[in-house]
Amino acid sequence: MPKYCFRKVYFICTNKQVIEPAIKSAVAYKNKDYADILLDQRDKSVKMWDVNKPPKTYSVEGFYLVHERLFDELLKEHSK
User: What is the pTM of this model?
Assistant: First the structure.
């Protein structure tokens, strides 16, 4: 079996969703502290521009990325 490793990455999520329906992409960050700084900057700009829209909840969430072959070998049977 080839050697695989897990990588933990962080995403800035909107309402606990990694990818928003209108955007269809996401940026992954290696450092949680950096993602938190960007989230603080986003919160300030969103509060300034989206005054009349319903509030969105932003959070930094961590996820483990696995190689596709490792997923097929070990994890696929345990996922939906």
Answer: 0.70
